[in-house]
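Schema walk-through. Below, the input block comes first and the output block second. Nothing else is stored per chain. Lengths vary across the set, and this one has 229 residues.
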Amino acid sequence: MNATLIHNDEASKHFITNCAQLGHLLYWYRQGGTRIEVRQQQEFRWLLLNHTLQSVIAANQPHRLLLPHLHIMAQYWQTLKRPGRVLELGLGGGAIRNYLLYNYPEAELVSVEHNAQVIHCYKRFFSGGKVGNLCCLDAEQALNRCGRFDWLILDLFSELDAPLFLYQRQFYELLREALVPHGHVFINFLAHHPSQLHHLQRLLNATFGKGVQILSVPDYANHVCFISL
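--- output ---
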């Protein structure tokens, strides 16, 4: 059964496509147009928001990264100087947060999520017991209030489309202002049409100059953006 979910330490494409039907339901919440589910199969537990996968963890090793784009991010992080302060925008099931807490315990990590029920699910089902510095704020509020950081990590997709502010120059100006000199930004961006990616590239180049790299995740709509000042 594990082969259905995990292959070579990554979530399989079959699992990612069918995760809303797999496993058994641990938690269900619905209000207005928002539906949240937590599901589990053997040691693997995942969070769905409106049927869209947010995170998957191994409950016995919550710091393991299991989604393909996160492996690409982590490989890049390992080449950099260790950060002093990190701001994560978009908590989901906390896979990034758990990885950072485990591998960078000396860093101050602030995780921001605008949905209080997602934070509740993280604390109850995904956290591994470390729940400090969790803020229920919008991304723009956090960038205006939380000071400056060495790393900014954005994984803000609640459904298949990007939030509108990811297409606006003003948001990237806020990101730049929230970075220390020589800081880094990491973005998971889902592009379903080349025009979306081209627009993002133009915004990033206009805001940050030449220190922008965008890598495609093979066989997925994810694109991982690395930005260095």
